[in-house]
Amino acid sequence: MSNDTTLVLGATGKTGRRVVARLRLLGTPVRTASRSSRTRFDWSDPGGWDAALRGVTAAYVVAPPVPGPAHEFVARAEAAGVRRLVLLSGRGADTWGDSTFGLDMRSAEDAVRGSALEWTVLRPSNFAQNFDEDVFHAPLVAGELALPADAVPEPFIDVEDVADAAAAVLTEPGRHAGRVYELTGPRALTFGAAVELISRASGRPLTYRRVSPAEYAASLVEEGLSEDDAQHVAEMFVLMERGLLAGTTDDLATVLGRAPRTFEDYVVRAAAAGAWGRPDGG
């Protein structure tokens, strides 16, 4: 147990809220910060950053959605006496070319790596929980997921594993300094195979259909995304289809000393919780 306070940004998000729960279980004092937390944090409003950083020893940072602000944040963290930063980036941050997604992550990584602080970068692959907590959920509940992805597999990682890794790095000073961990699940699956597993576990006749990037972008605009944001998301799938990120790594085992959870483990848990509805429509 430590008396040092750890700041968790994005504390209500998929990874953040899980990291908070683990740190509290370990007895680590936590300061939660987000746009809706008591300690307010917004990447577009630097006015609240100093209050969030005051008295903090370590910080869990989710890369901001635009390039740039991480540099100012890291400078303020150094000035505030923060000693360790753990950055949640994304797998293949240095292979996404000049995509907006890649620029965001690389900018944040450059800021952290260029600091005088002890830093660690976590680069997870696509989250399994995207199928029940994020963009893939509503289409699956409706019965069909349509994406611009075909035969190239993805080593989906369970967010529970990402949170376990983040908590370990945050509470083990020195052991992970200067490391970049590429976190993946134990095997890669195509999106079609993933939907088939979800269909079996949920008992619902769910289907997967491949569409073109242009069709997918148009569907996102219909759902309310701006045209720019829709193009950026579709662009990510185009890059994924090159197969550069289809391989698995042993980095999670390096951090935690155990194998990552399987996609099947995740599907069974989520289906039992009714994530995609019941076979009888309930």
Describe the protein.
- The structure is a single chain.
- With about 280 residues, this protein is an alpha/beta fold.
- It has a domain at about 5-125 and about 160-185 and about 250-260: NAD(P)-binding Rossmann-like Domain (Rossmann fold, 3-Layer(aba) Sandwich), CATH 3.40.50.720.
- The protein contains twelve helices and nine strands.
- It has helices at about 15-25, 50-55, 70-80, 100-115, 130-135, 135-140, 160-170, 190-200, 215-220, 225-240, 250-255, 265-270, and strands spanning about 5-10, 30-35, 40, 55-60, 85-90, 120-125, 145, 180-185, 205-210.
- The strands form two sheets. Strands 3-2-1-4-5-6-8 form a seven-stranded parallel β-sheet, sandwiched between helices. Strands 7-9 form a two-stranded parallel sheet.
- The termini are far apart.
Give the tags.
Ergot_Alk_Oxidoreductase, NAD(P)-bd_dom, alpha/beta, 282 residues, Rossmann fold, single chain, 16% strand, 7-stranded parallel beta sheet
Gyration radius, to the nearest Å? Answer: 19 Å
Instruction: Kindly report the spatial arrangement of strands forming the biggest sheet.
Output: 3-2-1-4-5-6-8
> What's the CATH H-level superfamily name of the domain at 5-125 and 159-183 and 248-260?
NAD(P)-binding Rossmann-like Domain
CATH second-level architecture of the domain at 5-125 and 159-183 and 248-260: 3-Layer(aba) Sandwich
How widely separated are the two ends?
44 Å
Q: What structural class do you assign from the helix and strand content?
A: alpha/beta
Strand-residue fraction? 15-25%
Helix content: 40-55%
Can you count the helices? 12
**Mean of pLDDT:** 92
Pattern of helices and strands: EHEEHEHEHEHHEHEHEHHHH
β-strand number? 9
Output the CATH topology of the domain at 5-125 and 159-183 and 248-260: Rossmann fold
Sheet with the most strands, sense and barrel status? 7 strands, parallel
Name the CATH class of the domain at 5-125 and 159-183 and 248-260.
Alpha Beta
Which stretches are low in confidence, meaning pLDDT under 50 for 5 or more residues running? none
Shape: globular
